[in-house]
Design a protein that fits this description.
CATH architecture of the largest domain: Alpha-Beta Barrel
Largest sheet: 8 strands, mixed, barrel
Shape: elongated
Organism: Pseudoalteromonas piratica
Distance between the termini: 49 Å
GO cellular component, one term: membrane
GO molecular function: cyclic-guanylate-specific phosphodiesterase activity
CATH topology of the largest domain: TIM Barrel
Strand order of the largest sheet: 9-10-12-13-14-15-16-17
Radius of gyration: 45 Å
Structural class: alpha/beta
Oligomer: single chain
Keywords: Membrane, Transmembrane, Transmembrane helix
Protein name: Diguanylate phosphodiesterase
Number of helices: 20
Strand content: 15-25%
Length: 663
């Protein structure tokens, strides 16, 4: 009932329900009136019949009231009584003695007992005085038997019920087809409204006959057209700004500015126990090609190397490539240098294979270094420049490190984690802007433990993807966290979902079945999906998001804006939130173009009914600015640093106050 109150009842159901109610009332009302009328008729008939019988029989037996002829009177009474229309006949003397008497069993065959109790006919008794000469010889009492009347009323009721039912059924069918024709344009309007709520701006081509609905349809189409026009204009404007400011024209990779912002955001998210890596690819023969063969040859050279890097980094989901100078490209990884040994060897092999007389100074050189959350960009680039110079001078082996684990060892580690591994959970709130005490939800971070040591998540999931075990890790993560969530069932949490699980029908079927076992899964849960994952197949992503929605799980697009692509893909994705990547908030106070970018994203997303969240909020000024820009939520260490969470975590841990961090 509460669900019905919350969701409401459709107009179609209400009208059909009203018709059914009216038909039911009409049916039973008409049946009741008919039965009552028939009952009154037969009641009068029984009374008249009893009176006629009493009068006629009384006159017939009057000559035979003496003792010698009383037998004849009895015979005449029996002849009339045996016709079956009478319940009893009784001749009583003036002294009150019963002279003659006949009784018929009261059983009524062929009529249900409930009907007899409902109709309740009263058997009438009529009298007639019988005279013998000039004296009263007795009084004759005749009572009609109601059995025949009950039977006839029952037959009439059945015929009336069937007739009424068929008549109402015909009327109901006619009403159904008439209402169906009327509701058809309403259904089109409803579908159009649902499409708009799901971020799809569809025109309604069905023009209704009803003038009022025609006006509403025209208004809806006009509104949808305006929404589409505004959406296209804003996405085009944002796309243009992104390309001008953050995208390299030749390679369509992020430029030096995008690289600097991404490094700052990436560094801020490094766990204290982890390190990330930066790889520098230098094209030593670019200047030679530009001089000897022209800039077109140089551009082709850069584009060729770019294609190689894109192909080689496909297996590394957390990698990001930038063109930071004319002949320099950089890749930032969420892995340590040892983990990337196989990638480096393969990349060097590819570059060495392409060396030829065309490239006097070599095809390309590769250098790599690690960085942590405290390293500055200039120091990291300085280390890379030194390593690159050594590589160009022929100094080998500086970057050729041993892999920490082999493929079989990784398989054993991951299977052990899936079977019995421990997961440490922490959370960080996403604050509702404009209210320092209200959270939109809490993002959950997980750290898998193997042999009492925490494993680098990026490396773990990269190897799991290579071994086709990512989905099993996600299942392990969800099973472990749902047990924890049951303790804090009223809080809304967000979990990160991998690419393999997101697109897997097997995972979706498992999730549906598991949600029936663990009903907590259906409430207050969000899946955060990387933008790059969604862009792999937007159509399949829309279907997956819709299926999650049916279970009760909302979706948030994280690292929004890092793909440097058009935002038109948002149209048709029924997501609740987008989380702008931290690269746009790191220098928000000094970079006004980022302000305009975030404001435009707000306009686009709000026109689609999507809430906008900014992350990596590190100070009060940035928080105030993103609130002014109209963002819906904020996340970062200024609001609250990640805190560990377990089944024993107290409720007051989920209470936060931004200003408290200023103390």
């Amino acid at each position: 009932m509460q669900s019905l109150i919350n969701k409401g009842m459709s107009l179609k159901v209400q009208i059909y329900g009203l018709l059914f109610l009216l038909a039911t009332v009409t049916f039973f009302g008409r049946l009741y009136v008919n039965v009552e009328s028939t009952k009154e008729y037969f009641q009068e008939q029984m009374s008249s019949h009893a009176q006629d019988a009493a009068t006629s029989l009384g006159l017939s037996i009057s000559p035979y009231m003496d003792e010698e002829n009383i037998v004849i009177a009895e015979t005449m009474m029996a002849a009339i009584f045996d016709s079956g229309y009478y319940k009893s006949m009784q001749l009583v003397s003036p002294d009150g003695d019963v002279m003659l008497e006949r009784n018929n069993p009261s059983a009524i065959e062929g009529v249900p007992n409930w009907f007899i109790e409902w109709v309740d006919l009263q058997a009438p008794t009529q009298t007639s005085e019988v005279s013998s000469g000039w004296q009263i010889a007795g009084t004759l009492y005749v009572t009609s038997h109601p059995g025949v009347s009950y039977f006839k009323i029952w037959k009439f009721t059945k015929r009336a019920a069937i007739g009424s039912f068929l008549l109402i059924l015909v009327c109901y069918l006619l009403a159904y087809f008439i209402l169906k024709a009327i509701f058809k344009p309403l259904n089109s309007l409803e579908n159009q409204a649902n499409a708009v709520s799901q971020k799809r701006f569809e025109q309604n081509s069905n023009v209704p006959f009803t003038s009022e609905l025609r006006v509403v349809t025209a208004a809806m189409n006009k509104m949808v057209a305006n929404l589409q026009k505004n959406f296209d204009a804003m996405t085009k404007q944002t796309e243009k700004l992104t390309k001008e400011v953050l995208v390299d024209d030749l390679t369509e990779l992020g430029n030096r500015r995008a690289f600097s912002s991404y490094f700052a955001a990436n560094k801020a998210q490094i766990h204290s126990d982890d390190v990330h890596s930066m790889c520098l690819i230098t094209l030593p023969s670019l200047q030679q090609l530009n001089t000897e063969q022209g800039y077109q040859a140089g551009d082709e050279y850069v584009s060729e190397v770019t294609d190689i890097l894109i192909d080689k980094t496909k297996e590394y989901d957390s990698s990001k490539i930038f063109r930071i100078a004319g002949g320099s490209l950089a890749i930032i990884f969420d892995y340590d240098k040892a983990f990337l040994n196989g990638f480096l060897n393969e990349l060097n092999h590819t570059f060495n294979h392409r060396n030829s007389n065309r490239y006097d100074h070599g095809y390309a050189t590769v250098s790599i270094t690690e960085f942590n959350q405290h390293d500055e960009l200039k120091d990291v680039l300085s280390n890379l420049d030194t390593a690159s110079t050594l590589a160009q001078q022929g100094v080998k082996g500086a970057d050729n490190v041993d892999t920490r684990f082999g493929l079989n060892e990784w398989r054993a580690i991951i299977n052990n984690i899936i079977a019995s591994g421990e997961i440490n959970f922490s959370f960080q709130p996403v604050k509702l802007n404009g209210n320092d005490k209200v959270g939109l939800y809490y993002e959950v971070f997980s750290r898998f433990v193997h042999n009492n040591e925490q494993v680098n998540n990026a490396q773990l999931f990269a190897m799991a993807e290579r071994l086709n075990l990512t989905m099993e890790l996600d299942k392990k993560l969800i099973r472990s966290f749902i047990e924890l969530k049951e303790t804090h069932y009223d809080k809304t949490f967000a979990l990160n979902l991998s690419r393999e699980a997101f697109y897997s029908e097997e995972f979706l079927n498992w999730l549906k079945m598991y949600s029936e076992v663990k009903a907590t899964l259906k409430n207050n849960l969000i899946f955060e999906i990387k933008e790059s994952v969604l862009l792999d197949d937007v159509t399949a992503a829309a279907n997956a998001i819709a299926e999650f929605k049916l279970i009760g799980i909302d979706t948030c697009i994280e690292h929004f804006g890092t793909s440097l692509t058009s935002f038109k893909y948002l149209q048709g994705l029924d997501v609740e939130y987008i989380k702008i990547d931290g690269t746009y908030t790191q220098d928000l106070l000094i970079n006004r173009q980022n302000n305009f970018f975030i404001q435009t994203i707000n306009n686009i997303c709000h026109s689609l009914g999507i809430k906008v969240i900014t992350c990596l909020i590190e100070n009060k000024e940035t928080l105030s600015l993103i609130e002014e820009l109209g963002c819906d939520g904020a996340q970062g260490n200024y609001i609250q640093k990640p805190l560990n969470i377990s089944q024993k975590t107290e409720e007051n841990v989920f209470t936060f106050h931004t200003k408290g961090l200023e103390l």
